[in-house]
Inverse folding.
């Protein structure tokens, strides 16, 4: 409540009291001194807490009646800010006096409900802000008219000229909160039409129109009106003039005319192009790009004396840092002629010099290394041949050294520097910093005034200034923050801090006094959650740490607001204190909540162009074929399911290589921790992205994820699935164990540590994952094996916007406890093996073309020999390493990549080898290397990626040129000359060249 309003209410209340007293005097005014027999409130339920009401009441039962005490009570009641009107009725009852306080409670802004369709823009946040109604602040009826006016203006600015707004309010007598309902009828949004362009434009109207962005390019459809598009048009047109070097151009939007019949908005632009301005350097060569970088008229889009002076200073520093310490830069503005004006920067470079030596003298308290690491000046070295020197940097270093000493109590320190020619060569510069430290000022004694005894010990532990410690302004400022934070946390929102420093008894000693004026302590009367409709209140209560009677801590209130935001269920959480400026000591804490939309639908389209290893019935192409694979993605999620904060989602993926449907049910804040999530999942997946077979997976799983820190997450998972293969290129009759459906029950743990600066486009940091699991008959699995897969990626930023990125992936599968009829070769089902190669592992292969291949089966006593097909069969060990050098190529959106990939899929861990040569066409346990070049184009959904790879040592293998039915008729153990001609094995090899197109970085 502002002071003027308080004084008016106080005066009005006292006047009403005395008017009432004069009126009663004519009847029978109770004289002072009579005993008060009863104090009554009308209505009985008062807006003040009982503790506050007792504190302000100066009239007590059994005490003598006093008109002054009544007036004082009215004064104190008004000071709390919770009353609009107070009247007093004092009447004689027998020989005593009954005093009745007749009150009318003030209202405070409560929850704001927005009903109706509110198209974006404006956003809901913009709607709340423009109404200027802050939760918990005093409510005035006139505020609704202002809010309506502001909101209508916002809607009109966004092209909603048919909109209408109705605002109503209703007060809760228990909390005095006024709920506000805003009903919005938006109507249809207007579109722009051809603007009126006036003035000296010097550009065609079509060029100006394109710059405004009011019409869609090519199709020439007028865009819908938005406030952002309207206000940005003038700046966008001005930028177009800047591109034409008309830096002094002015563009002003002077009128907006709406036609309600056509729903069209006609803007008017007043344009003054101004002359073409050329900014150039004379007497020294400076590129146009550097001129634009260092002369701020290009950024500000205006010709201003101060900007030109700043440009001269920037150019001077540029040359001085480049080895010309005597450089001097001035400018001259040549008057315009023939629509052309020139600004010349006259640059006198002087001789080129290098900072050969940097010395520091007089330092005793700090060693030279401590000071040097804070300086901007840099002596010449191999990396910086001329060092780094300028007068501006030298003066800046003087200030840096001075501040370093002052922060440690050297209040009289003086730092000077001398730049002189080197002793051995004229083009050498030597700089010497001379430090006169002076005496260090220390705190002789620290006293406290106004600090409560229970707070003294806790506060003093956090203070920097203490007896015997250096006296510095930075220490006092830090102590001030620590002290006020303590008081704010303990319910003293109006606490103030003062300090005084006086000379001590000894030389360079200071007596320091901290004075604290805590003000009155305030407490939580109750916590009110506003705006909940669907969410179960118990979910919010679990997050509440603030309880009635606790000190009113601003720190705790902000902490709970963040905790509610972290639930991910609400579009807006606003914390407030009801009547924050009132004098009462018990106040309501408000959390005003807007629940987020429950349903989210995401649709995605993607594609991949590469050597795709899709399942095929044709056996003459085991290395895959170049192809195009489109992808369609859909995700439907429902948050706050059943009002419990749970999330249920459906994921779908459709492509010619994969059909996938997943159902997830996530319980967030499991067991009371917002860092713990329990997820139940069901999955159906049919994939044909491996040349050898199609795999079908039906899976149910449960996962418990625990976030250990911002970067570290650990997950425990149990999955039970049925995996089956079909469309096997190697005939089913020849590999019966691999073709059978298999049940797999596996328990696993995953650890993720993510220290990347930007997961979508990383420039620095690390990313590590480890996933380990055990499939065992204990879990109902028909196969027993241990599976582990680890990944390490590191990213390094280099000068020139270069990034070196590298990734290592290692995995192993180890079968154990083999069942009857199984051996190590077929103990792991085909879909559970490692497959690799392609755009995210080793670009020397086509997709999933790495590793062992089908070599056929030699004849045995129980089975006939089979013809080799050369199709990939996966392996039980994996090793891939990739290194990329990423660099800008064209502008900010197009980048290039040079890469090297190495690795392979191996039969098992013992067969892993780092050799680079293939022993024969049946050996696949070696490292395949590839080098290449790629292009990245930034888009909102991630970079579009094109990679061209050259495989240095691709594998050779033996395949089969025919169909499956023909393969079944071939028996390599048959007598020579009895087999058809198509049964001959065909030597094959993977191509040296691979091409990939996809979305997202490789890693």
């Amino acid at each position: 409540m502002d002071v003027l309003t308080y004084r008016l209410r106080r005066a009005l209340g006292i006047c009403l009291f005395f008017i009432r007293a004069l009126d009663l005097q004519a009847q029978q005014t109770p004289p002072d001194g009579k005993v008060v027999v009863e104090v009554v409130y009308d209505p009985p339920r008062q807006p003040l807490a009982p503790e506050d009401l007792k504190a302000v009441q100066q009239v007590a039962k059994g005490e003598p009646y006093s008109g002054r005490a009544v007036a004082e009570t009215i004064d104190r009641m008004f000071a709390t800010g919770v009353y609009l009107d107070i009247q007093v009725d004092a009447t004689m009852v027998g020989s005593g006096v009954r005093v009745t306080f007749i009150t009318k409670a003030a209202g405070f802004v409560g929850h704001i409900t927005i009903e109706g369709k509110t198209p974006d823009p404006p956003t809901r946040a913009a709607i709340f802000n423009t109404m200027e109604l802050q939760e918990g602040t005093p409510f005035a009826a006139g505020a609704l008219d202002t809010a309506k006016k502001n909101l209508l203006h916002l809607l009109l600015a966004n092209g909603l000229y048919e909109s209408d707004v109705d605002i109503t309010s209703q007060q809760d007598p228990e909390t005095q909160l006024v709920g506000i309902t805003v009903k919005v009828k938006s109507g249809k949004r207007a579109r722009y039409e051809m603007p009126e362009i006036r003035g000296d434009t010097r550009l065609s109207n079509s060029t100006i129109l394109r710059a405004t962005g009011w019409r869609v390019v090519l199709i020439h459809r007028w865009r819908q009106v938005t406030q952002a598009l309207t206000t940005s048009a003038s700046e966008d047109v001005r930028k177009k003039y800047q591109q034409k070097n008309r830096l002094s151009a002015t563009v002003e939007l002077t009128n907006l005319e709406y036609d309600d019949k056509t729903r069209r908005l006609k803007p008017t632009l007043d344009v003054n192009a101004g002359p073409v301005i050329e900014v150039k350097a004379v007497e020294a060569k400076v590129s146009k790009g550097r001129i634009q970088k260092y002369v701020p008229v290009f950024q500000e889009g205006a010709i201003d004396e101060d900007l030109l002076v700043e440009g001269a200073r920037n150019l001077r520093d540029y040359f001085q840092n480049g080895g010309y310490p005597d450089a001097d830069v001035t400018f001259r503005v040549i008057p315009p002629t023939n629509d052309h004006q020139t600004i010349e920067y006259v640059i006198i470079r002087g001789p080129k010099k290098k900072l050969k030596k940097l010395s520091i003298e007089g330092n005793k308290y700090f060693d030279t290394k401590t000071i040097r690491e804070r300086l901007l000046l840099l002596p010449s070295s191999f990396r910086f041949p001329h060092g780094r020197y300028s007068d501006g940097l030298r003066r800046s270093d003087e200030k840096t050294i001075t501040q370093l000493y002052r922060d440690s109590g050297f209040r009289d320190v003086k730092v000077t520097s001398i730049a002189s020619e080197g002793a051995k060569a004229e083009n050498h510069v030597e700089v010497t910093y001379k430090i006169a430290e002076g005496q260090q000022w220390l705190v002789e004694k620290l006293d406290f005034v106004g600090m409560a005894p229970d707070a003294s010990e806790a506060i003093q532990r956090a203070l920097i200034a203490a007896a015997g410690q250096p006296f510095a302004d930075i220490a006092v400022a830090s102590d001030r923050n620590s002290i006020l934070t303590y008081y704010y946390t303990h319910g003293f929102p109006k606490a103030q801090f003062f300090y005084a420093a006086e000379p001590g008894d000894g030389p360079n000693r200071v007596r320091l006094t901290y004075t604290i004026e805590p003000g009155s302590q305030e407490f939580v009367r109750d916590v009110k959650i506003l705006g909940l409709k669907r969410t179960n209140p118990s979910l919010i209560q679990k997050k509440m740490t603030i309880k009635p009677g606790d000190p009113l801590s601003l720190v705790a209130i902000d902490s709970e607001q963040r905790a509610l935001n972290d639930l991910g269920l609400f579009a807006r959480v606003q914390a407030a204190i009801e009547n924050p400026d009132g004098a009462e000591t018990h106040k309501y804490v408000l959390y005003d909540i807007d629940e987020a939309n429950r349903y989210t639908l995401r649709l995605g389209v993607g594609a991949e162009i590469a050597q795709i290893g899709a399942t095929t019935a044709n056996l003459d192409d085991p290395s895959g074929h170049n192809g195009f694979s489109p992808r369609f993605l859909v995700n439907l999620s429902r948050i706050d399911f059943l009002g419990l904060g749970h999330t249920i989602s459906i994921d779908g993926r459709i492509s010619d290589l994969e059909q996938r449907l997943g159902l997830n049910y996530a319980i967030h804040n499991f067991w009371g921790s917002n860092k713990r999530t329990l997820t139940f999942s069901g999955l159906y997946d049919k994939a044909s992205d491996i040349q050898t077979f199609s795999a079908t997976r039906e899976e149910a799983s449960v996962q418990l994820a625990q976030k250990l820190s911002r970067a570290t997450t650990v997950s425990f998972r149990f999955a039970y699935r049925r995996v089956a293969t079909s469309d096997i290129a190697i005939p089913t009759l020849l590999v019966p164990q691999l073709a059978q459906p298999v049940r797999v029950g596996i328990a696993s743990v995953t650890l993720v540590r993510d220290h990347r600066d930007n997961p979508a486009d990383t420039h620095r940091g690390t990313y590590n994952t480890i996933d380990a699991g055990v499939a065992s008959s204990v879990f109902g699995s028909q196969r027993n094996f241990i599976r582990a897969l680890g990944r390490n990626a590191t990213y390094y930023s280099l000068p020139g916007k270069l990034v070196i990125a590298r990734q290592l992936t290692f995995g192993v599968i180890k079968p154990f406890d083999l069942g009857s009829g199984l051996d190590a070769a077929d103990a792991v089902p085909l879909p559970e093996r490692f497959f690799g190669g392609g755009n995210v592992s080793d670009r020397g292969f086509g997709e999933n073309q790495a590793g062992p291949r089908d070599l056929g089966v030699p004849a045995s006593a129980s089975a006939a020999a089979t013809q080799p097909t050369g199709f990939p069969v996966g392996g039980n060990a994996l090793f891939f390493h990739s290194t990329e050098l990423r660099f800008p190529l064209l502008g900010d959106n197009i980048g290039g990549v040079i890469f090297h990939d190495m690795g392979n899929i191996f039969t098992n861990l013992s067969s892993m080898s780092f050799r680079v040569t293939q022993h024969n066409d049946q050996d696949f346990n070696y490292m395949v290397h590839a080098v290449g070049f790629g292009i990245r184009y930034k888009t909102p959904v991630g970079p579009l990626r094109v990679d061209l790879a050259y495989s240095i040592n691709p594998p050779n293998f033996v395949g089969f040129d025919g169909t499956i039915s023909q393969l079944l008729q071939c028996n390599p153990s048959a007598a020579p000359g009895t087999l058809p001609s198509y049964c001959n094995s065909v030597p094959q090899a993977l191509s040296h060249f691979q091409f990939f197109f996809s979305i997202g970085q490789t890693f």
